[in-house]
Amino acid sequence: MFKSDDERIQDKLLLLKLKEGSIEAFDALYDKHWKSVYSAAFKRLQDPDQAKDITQDIFLQLWLKREESRIDNLPAYLHIATRNKVYNCMEKERRFVPVPELMLQLKSSRDQTDADLIRKDFEAACEALINTLTTSQQHIFRMRYQQDMSTSEIADVLSISRKTVQNQLGKAVAQLRASLLLLSIIILIGQ
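The line above is the sequence of RNA polymerase sigma factor; the predicted structure tokens follow.
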């Protein structure tokens, strides 16, 4: 949609006031343009949270760089900034491979020897992480995920309540998830 000359002039005046530090000008520009930025990001990502984050980031940068800004056509600037942020977001997601998918990729790898070594290293790292849990959490975690027992069965065997099993299991999984995320980041940085 093409902007009228009046809208372009209004944007330029607001940008000049913004350059001088006018919060009112910033608010006016935000109110006028946030929806188009959000819509463009959401259209490509189909994720409302990511679209909100991108929208906020673009307008934050507009505010932070207001003094050095040389924007002549604000809608065009916002369109390009949104497109770039969306591409960056998509690129980050492409680099992230969930652990189960990573294991499947390793199994289908042509170089099975390397895949076996990496799998063994990963399993050793997982075992080391499990060993960082408290003794009771380790025991419950192994019963649930290695022996495939239900929380009710674990509660019966250990003579504790099912709720206690669930709480211990929840804490163990949360700790392991955080550790695995850190491990994944370290692996990605090392590549």
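Note on the example: The two ends are 44 Å apart (CA to CA). The chain has a mean pLDDT of 82.
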